[in-house]
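Human: If only I could read backbone structure tokens as easily as an amino acid sequence. Take your time, and here it is.
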Amino acid sequence: MPIHVTTDNFEAEVLKSDAPVLVDFYADWCGPCKMLAPLVEQFAQENPQVKVCKINVDDQADLAMDYDVRSIPTLVVFKDGKEANRSVGLISKSQLENLI
């Protein structure tokens, strides 16, 4: 199950994670985000070695700005506290797996 992240727990959950982290920047009103959500949840279940987090850009606008999220859905992979990869828009399951 993805972890919902805010500015309060972003550093602990994402930047200080020992495991790779997949962050899904989304909004509740976003159609492509709703289509991507089941893939992200399935990925989280099938890949326990990767921490999966979700950030609602409407509630966490500062985080979205800090990471230059201009379109959603945006998936960002963090490794060792740094951005390692990024994808913008709706992607397939295989593209999602290739991000990591």
Remarks:
- The chain is about 35% helix and 25% strand.
- The first helix runs from residue 10 to 15.
- The beta strands are 3-4, 21-26, 51-56, 74-79, 82-88.
